[in-house]
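fwd from M.: "can u put these together and see what the complex looks like"

so here's what she sent:
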Amino acid sequence: MSDYTPPLADIKFAMEAIADLGAIVASDRYSGADAATVEGILAEAGRFIAEVIAPANRDGDTIGSKWQPGGKVTVPPSFEVAYAKWVESGFGAMSFDPDFGGGGLPWIASIAVQEMLTSANMGFSLCPLLTQGAIEAIHVHGSDEQKATYLPKMLTGEWTGTMNLTEPQAGSDVGAVISKAEPADDVAPGAWRISGQKIYITWGEHDMASNIVHLVLARTPGSAPGTKGISMFLVPKFFVNADGSLGDRNAVQCLSTEHKMGIHGSPTCVMLYEGAIGWLVGGENEGMRNMFTMMNNARLSVGLQGLALAERAYQQALQYSVDRQQGRAIGAPAGASSPIIEHPDVRRMLMTQRAWIDALRALLYTNAAAIDLGAAARTVGDRDGARTWQELTELLIPLSKSLSTDVGCEMTSLALQIHGGMGFVEETGAAQHVRDIRIAPIYEGTNGIQAADLVGRKLAMRGGAVITDLLDEFDGRSAALARVEGCAAYAEQLSHATALCRTATAHLGTVAATDPRALLSASSPYLRLLGTTVCAGLLAKGVLAVAGKDDDYHRARIASARFFGEQILPTVSGLLPSILASGAPLYELSAAQLASR
Amino acid sequence: MSDYTPPLADIKFAMEAIADLGAIVASDRYSGADAATVEGILAEAGRFIAEVIAPANRDGDTIGSKWQPGGKVTVPPSFEVAYAKWVESGFGAMSFDPDFGGGGLPWIASIAVQEMLTSANMGFSLCPLLTQGAIEAIHVHGSDEQKATYLPKMLTGEWTGTMNLTEPQAGSDVGAVISKAEPADDVAPGAWRISGQKIYITWGEHDMASNIVHLVLARTPGSAPGTKGISMFLVPKFFVNADGSLGDRNAVQCLSTEHKMGIHGSPTCVMLYEGAIGWLVGGENEGMRNMFTMMNNARLSVGLQGLALAERAYQQALQYSVDRQQGRAIGAPAGASSPIIEHPDVRRMLMTQRAWIDALRALLYTNAAAIDLGAAARTVGDRDGARTWQELTELLIPLSKSLSTDVGCEMTSLALQIHGGMGFVEETGAAQHVRDIRIAPIYEGTNGIQAADLVGRKLAMRGGAVITDLLDEFDGRSAALARVEGCAAYAEQLSHATALCRTATAHLGTVAATDPRALLSASSPYLRLLGTTVCAGLLAKGVLAVAGKDDDYHRARIASARFFGEQILPTVSGLLPSILASGAPLYELSAAQLASR
């Protein structure tokens, strides 16, 4: 297995040339840091992650986290060591509120750390990721006492957090949750007794932290059916005494963990709440609203997993392609044996990965920047700016989550392919990336649900104008691109793609009101078309920012963007027929006809 | 996990409406069977496979075949039982020479059995598959004595066979083999001593059969370098006495087995030959020629794995989509919970699988039929016919192998996706299909090598006319299709796709002589474009054959073909820019630039 190299230059490029880090750090809200500071912190984080976290990745897969009789979950020894160092490092707190020990940096900086952490060790990274979601929920919706009691130790990572949504009958359909909460004023004023079984709880139980703070969705007595009657409760594994020390164990336990295709290092727990004591986070029946607060960041982070594993797998495949001698390159002397990187089809696989990685990073960091710029605008009371950035954030989220995780699966598989037979042998490590990333198109809202969100909620924003505004921006950029040497074909493809997106968007705008089946039937191909076009449009921004720079690094970024525009972007043009088709062809066969064989 | 249902109606449809089983059984060579006989045998085989072989699939994954100290390899107990029944059944011998106990049926009938066997249990199916390859090599190139000694027991499956090509330094580059053969006339006239290490030897060692017949590539003293100096040897695990009983153990042992991503049931062995005694199969230095004899059938069989696992995974996903209730279908009353098959995006995933399965079956069975019709023509001395069928066989092989295995990976992944979180949990069985099939794009010539074969050898046949003849046929078919009710859009897309194929083919014909890098750079996208178009053209044949039939089954086949033509075929149109691009964009970045991050 190859080592992991933090892609610091690429991250800097995505942040500065594409995602406008400059504007973020120039804002009042983030005036505490400049671009150079962020860069310095990321360099330090990257070094730490490569040295401390990445080496434990294989243990996560082979040893895994394991349920033990009695409900204990053990992690690989190397995870325990790495986690202790992670807590020490403080990188988990960098974008959180300084009042609770955070660093107050923009979110995009955390996203960069998270990318590297995920590349290094996806199973491990899920523990800080879930904690981050719980911090956010408590920070925005929790009481002052909850914040004071829980946030400082969660920010350091001494305590970790979980999200408890799913139940066997309530997966994509969160409204079907039946876990119950009943008043427990006998225990303490404002306390509730939580009962129910939750499944797929990531890092629901483990022994790396001294306490675990569970956020649990449940129904209070007499609550409305569906999502409107769901409340969120904070249920600590160990009660916290008034002096901050840990008290008794709460009535929550891990019944079992799942045997999964990948991320073996991350325990996926079945949690049983048997009258566990918890406290409302936010108001009664506001659980779904609270979830929505975290949703954008969580979905962006899962999208990031696609990029992160594509990056890690690519680094390994590239190294293999340089080392492995097999066959004779074109023009090499008879009898010579050449590194496989010299073979055109291997080059195609490498360039495809390289270009997609640049493209996904452009998309995801732009999405993160939109979150920061929205927050910056809100801070200074710029309501128009805040709305504009919020709209862009909302539009990009389903693209970031779905496109990046789908492409992450495709690219890790290409990286495996480059290894030939070795790729199928587990010791090589290439297969682990393919297995690990396969969950990402499923959790945090399946990619089908993201697509429904795109054509449902997001397309409807300002009657589709959020999308067409972005396409207008790309058209302007494609005109500028046409004047850059060597970029005429890229510009033409970009302009063609935006035209297809306009056709598709206008069509879906029309059917949205009259034919929901046609709208939803088109959702996934539309997401792929729009997402790929947005990637190409954002990469073009990077090209324009550095066009003319005559160093190897920037020439490589331009070549990669051009390859994306000329050879990857066109592959989505053939999705238009599926988008314009009605829903009828999908329903022409009955279930019985689908099954007849 | 769902049961496996043999797709007998679909196989019959592919054979009769598309692949011309009628012409095969009407030939002198295969006059022993009619279509109804074949159908009856397949029904019997399907029932046997579903009842006996399929239930062992999960054991193959969870227990696996395991190397034991001393070089023994044990298989799951259920494999041993299933294999004994397989031997009893006689289905392994149905297409082989009656002189050695075979059934003399056309190859396409064996392909159908093989499809079902692979769907049922891919790891298991590799044992009969490798045996079949060894039988073929011995039958065509072996001496009369070798045939008499080995074939009867190999045809029943009492003895199994292996192919020993790969060495650590010789994977895709078979010419780099260094295993040695030295004359051992001291042992017996014509005997050789074989020494060397072979890797990735499928079913190289196991305890299901009483003997294993290894075919081993090695170099004799003074042989030419590269592929020209390679000979093939027959090396039995146990020597066979003159009376047919088994004698001493040969000096070949299994050093270890690989830990693989999938097909855990199939032991992938490192084999050590330490002066093992063997005999030439065919002449000295004719090893590669012998390999080529088996290559088409072997590649077709691996292609079949893509179809077979797509089928198995689809059956399971369809059942899950009917059983699983989640969310509310469009138009369902408030508060209702609907089976997920009612959701448009799930329908899209199901229809995509269904249509691809029909398409791949059309391609693979047509390929098998071309092999049979070629053999039938040769039997009656029809040289023109033999050449025409041979050309079609040769053209289709790389399409069958690559397209089907790539699509097999994509479709098993879609099937997993339909299961949501359950798909990532191993007990569900959906993940096993994804893991099992991932080897198929790699072995038996990586898909990159298939693409090189397509643009190298196959495109050059009759100056590209083998391809354009087929495109002419499709154009004629698309004209006919345009007159079938509801098929105008399909016809138009087919005609558009053939035009793209003509442009691409003409371009590659031009650069073939002058710019090998441009040719090879285009190879993979060209294969996908041509292969998908061929699928659409073959499905059209089926539509024309049954158009107007007004029963549920045939309406479903037509709807599936139309979906393929209208919504899947167009997705390859965007590959043309990659095909027409020169090789330059793939080489614009140096290895250092690819690595800079």
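replying to her w this: The radius of gyration of chain B is 24 Å.
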